[in-house]
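STRUCTURE:
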């Protein structure tokens, strides 16, 4: 293994899409800079959305097909299986779990998020899907006929359940709510999704609030309603927690559970930047927020890298997110919260829709359901509504569904 040098121009902490984008931006702007990428993951950076999407539905299930080739294409030195345990802004240095110390001129926190687990359950048949190792392990468990319970009816849980149907496994999707993705979508879409999942052989179990898992010869998952599910393997889609320990212990300012950054993605510590999931940034349309999706990771990573290399370019971007669930797909911008007022516009055959999410009469988010090439227009609608230039009554004709 290559040893850490005593000093680098740029140290990037994290091994995901934001780290990759930052390294590319630094190399373009500063060709002679030295760059170290310190990743706790034992694998090279990959395009992480593929772990629950393309690798299951495409022709190539090998995660190496999704490698970002960061080191080869940027000249950065990549250190995998390298956990950074201390960020020391006062001395412009970081310390790894092996006790290695290196100094930086500029550092980037791109530490992302970690999946939530069930406390005190340690069994290799209970998995989360966040890394290449997780994906490979789940592939091994998802044999033809295996009983697999996915816990969680949100973004990641629904994607994993849909993906697993490609393996021949018997898939059950258990979630605490009454309807799939009910926190984001109107009833017209959640009802359609439940029918689609059922048609693809998935058993959907609503109202299942996981309390614990027994790990005997088979797994037994217990809920608060005294209901139990038996399985050969379980996949937890219980959300994620931001990896902000380094920032917190390094004395950086945090708010809303994320790392506070200025318009240039600089943190409160000199020469330390943050990008991706952990950054609390000022969205030009929606104000302070942190976003846990790949589009933001790519865009903010690139912006941070440019600024680390000397640019002074404000990060003025409202990211999108997207998913595919069997034959349906969507893109979305802003906040999708089903507790808001939702105004739906459907096409004639009710296959495609545009849903506007309003709070106090202003659009906070737009869902483009089976509707494509409209993300930029959705941002324009949000901006016009936020500025008082578009009333709720004028929304229906702004974006054509389909």
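SEQUENCE:
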């Amino acid at each position: 293994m290559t040893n850490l040098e005593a000093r680098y121009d740029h140290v990037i902490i994290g091994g995901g899409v934001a780290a990759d984008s930052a390294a590319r931006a630094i190399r373009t702007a500063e060709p002679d800079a030295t760059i170290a990428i310190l990743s706790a993951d034992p694998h090279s950076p990959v395009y992480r959305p593929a772990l629950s999407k393309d690798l299951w539905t495409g022709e190539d299930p090998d995660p190496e097909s999704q490698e970002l080739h960061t080191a080869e294409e940027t000249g950065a030195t990549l250190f995998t299986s390298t956990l950074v345990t201390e960020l020391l802004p006062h001395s412009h240095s970081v310390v790894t779990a092996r006790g290695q110390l290196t100094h930086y001129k500029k550092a980037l926190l791109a530490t992302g998020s970690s999946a939530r687990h069930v406390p005190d359950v340690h069994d290799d048949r209970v998995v989360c899907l966040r890394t290449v190792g997780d994906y490979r392990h789940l592939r091994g468990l998802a044999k033809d006929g295996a009983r697999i319970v996915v816990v969680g009816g949100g973004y990641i849980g629904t994607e994993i359940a849909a993906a697993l149907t490609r393996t021949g496994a018997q898939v059950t999707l258990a979630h605490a709510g009454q309807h799939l993705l009910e926190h984001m979508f109107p009833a017209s879409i959640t009802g359609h999704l439940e029918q689609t999942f059922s048609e693809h052989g998935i058993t959907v179990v609503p109202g299942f609030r996981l309390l614990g898992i027994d790990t005997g010869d088979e797994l037994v998952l217990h809920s608060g309603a005294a209901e139990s599910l038996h399985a050969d393997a379980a996949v937890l889609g219980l959300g994620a927690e931001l990896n902000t320990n380094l920032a917190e212990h390094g004395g950086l300012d945090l708010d809303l559970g994320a790392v506070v950054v200025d318009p240039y993605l600089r943190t409160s510590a000199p020469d330390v930047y943050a990008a991706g999931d952990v950054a609390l940034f000022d969205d030009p349309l929606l104000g302070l927020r942190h976003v846990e999706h790949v589009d933001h990771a790519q865009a903010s990573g690139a912006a941070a890298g440019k600024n680390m290399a000397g640019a002074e370019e404000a990060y003025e971007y409202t990211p999108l997110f997207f998913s595919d669930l069997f034959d349906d797909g969507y893109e979305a911008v802003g906040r999708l919260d089903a507790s808001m007022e939702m105004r739906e516009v459907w096409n004639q055959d009710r296959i495609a829709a545009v849903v506007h999410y309003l709070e106090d009469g202003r659009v906070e988010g737009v869902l483009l359901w089976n509707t494509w090439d409209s993300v930029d227009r959705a941002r324009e609608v949000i901006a016009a509504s936020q500025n008082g230039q578009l009333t709720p009554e004028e929304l229906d004709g702004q974006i054509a569904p389909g």
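REMARK: The chain has three domains: 7-114+240-308, 117-236, 327-394.
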